[in-house]
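agent: user wants the structure for ATP/GTP-binding protein from Parathalassolituus penaei. delegating to structure tool.
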Amino acid sequence: MDYKIIFGGQVGAGKTTAIAAISDVPVATTEAKASDDVAKRKESTTVAMDYGMLKLPGGEKVHLFGTPGQTRFSFMWDVLTVGGLGLVLLIDNKQPDPVADMEFYINAFRSFIDRNAVVVGITRMDLAPQPPLTTYINKLHEMGINAPVYEVDARKAEDVEILLMSLLSILELGLK
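agent: tool returned. relaying tokens verbatim.
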């Protein structure tokens, strides 16, 4: 059996990096030169999707799809979530209002989350320790969502694996 997991979140949160950290195949990306305000943060950005794959013992595969972070490419969010089991939402804590960013992406993916599951990974907490994880958890509860929230470094395979194992555990245990 094959599984499909979606990675979503704002530009620069680490979606492409996270997929590359755990993929067993070279990651296929649709990177383009950044423009607008994005160019102030990074040279290139995902414009359609990222794709990687994780091979599980027994021959099963987890297909990893990263969505573009820019809202002008939001039509891809609906396309990429078709057949997905859950969402790994990455949020960059270094941004001016990362909790509002999380709220935006939760709302944008809400119908998908309501049918499936979500885990939230907060990146760059080493560079910006505030707000703390409890602020995100409280906002999720306020929104009626019970989801685990982790501090992660998208470059570290073990951090990304924790997000995936948490998501798969929620689904397997029927907690969603």
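agent: one observation worth passing along. The CA atoms of residues 10 and 69 lie 4 Å apart.
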